[in-house]
Specification:
By secondary structure, this protein is α+β, with helices and mostly antiparallel strands. The chain has helices at about 1-40, 70-75, 90-105, 125-135, 145-155, 200-215, and strands spanning about 45-55, 60, 65-70, 75-85, 110-120, 140-145, 160-165, 175, 180-185, 190-195. Strand 4 (about 75-85), helix 3 and strand 5 form a beta-alpha-beta unit. The chain is globular and about 50 Å long. It starts with a helix and ends with a helix.
């Protein structure tokens, strides 16, 4: 009777060993897959579109009074931020971040431009913008134009800007505006957007990944 049980007992032990071995192997494979997935740097903090978006015609001027339009967005990467020179906090902070980004990307051979578009054309003349942007970086470009010209661009990007009156009177108004940074590729297309809170390290890292994917 005990002799009859030996084969079945051996089979049970062998089956158990095989099950344990397979489970262990599966666990090792799953753990390795998880670790490898986490180490792949393909996730971006920026919002990048599956296909870059074409921009309809618009026409503005830069702080040198040169035309700034769709053609001006081409031939290079452009980081574009919308604000105004009388902005008390968001604009100076963002331009400081973009200045850090410019320095961090200084090792690249790519032609990269940083553009500040005013949403306050009533006060922001080319001369005012030239003085303002050069305070943060002498290579930055200030852009202004008519209210209609600015709307031609902001509407396409979903950029909000709203005049807010203050107790100081007409000359002391504020402008609520979108605080994101927009990225255009060398084909002049809307490529990605960086939403606040903005980090120079995150923008730099994200851009390098997007540049590698673009090439």
């Amino acid at each position: 009777m005990s002799t009859d049980n030996k084969p079945s007992g051996f089979k049970r032990v062998l089956t158990a060993i095989i099950v344990v071995a397979l489970a262990t192997a599966a666990g090792i494979w799953a753990a390795r897959a998880v670790l490898e997935h986490k180490s792949v740097p393909d996730e971006l903090e920026a919002t990048r579109f599956p296909a870059a978006r074409e921009i309809l015609p618009f026409s503005l001027i830069d702080h040198n009074s040169a035309v700034f339009d769709n053609n001006a967005l081409g031939q290079r990467w452009s980081f574009v931020f919308f604000g105004y020179t009388h902005c008390p906090d968001v604009c100076p902070t963002t331009l400081s971040v973009l200045n850090s980004v410019a320095h961090k990307l200084g090792d690249l051979e790519e032609d990269i431009r940083f553009v500040f578009v005013s949403v306050d054309p009533e006060r922001d003349t080319p001369a005012q913008l030239a003085q303002f942007v050069s305070y943060f970086n002498s290579d930055f470009i200030g852009v202004t134009g008519t209210a209609e010209g600015i709307d031609q661009l902001t509407r396409q990007l979903g950029v909000m800007h709203l005049r807010v009156e203050t107790e100081n009177g007409a000359s002391g108004y504020l402008v609520d505006h979108t605080a994101s940074v927009f990225l255009f590729d060398p084909d002049g297309r809307y490529h990605a957007v960086f939403s606040p809170p903005l980090s120079a390290d995150a923008i730099t890292d994200n851009f390098r990944k997007m540049l590698q994917a673009y090439q």
